[in-house]
Amino acid sequence: MAWPQKRIFLMGDAVTCALPNQFTPQGYYNIERMLKAILAKGGNVRTCDTCASTRGIKELTFIEGIENGNMSQLMQWTIEADKVLTF
């Protein structure tokens, strides 16, 4: 059985999750590892370009495989999706 395509679009303060070299104490979730696992399975992760610019991190290097996105891409992903989860 094929793994359905997963797409994650990071908005607001969540764009900081795309920054590499995160350190979390033992027992805490490490978002960098989670995003890398999604990417390794063929998932797609993008950040909101405007949100990254607003937070002054647009020019920083993100985790390998994560790209800047825009609202048009988010809209297209939403239209194409079988399910959409937000939190």
What are its keywords?
single chain, 87 residues, alpha/beta, 3-stranded parallel β-sheet, 30% helix, 14% strand, globular
Task: Walk me through what this model shows.
This protein has 87 residues and is an alpha/beta fold. Helices cover 30% and strands 14% of the residues. The protein has 3 helices and 3 strands; from the N terminus they run E-H-E-H-E-H. The protein has helices at residues 31-40, 49-54, 71-80; strands at residues 7-10, 44-48, 67-69. The longest helix is centred in the middle third of the chain and has 10 residues, at 31-40. The protein starts with 6 loop residues before the first strand and ends in a 7-residue tail after the last helix.
What integer value in Å does the Rg equal?
13 Å
User: Which series of helices and strands comes N to C?
Assistant: EHEHEH
Beta-strand proportion: 5-15%
| C-alpha end-to-end distance | 28 Å
How much helicity do the residues have?
25-40%
The major pleated sheet works out as: 3 strands, parallel
Q: Give me the number of helical elements.
A: 3
Unreliable segments of 5+ consecutive residues: none
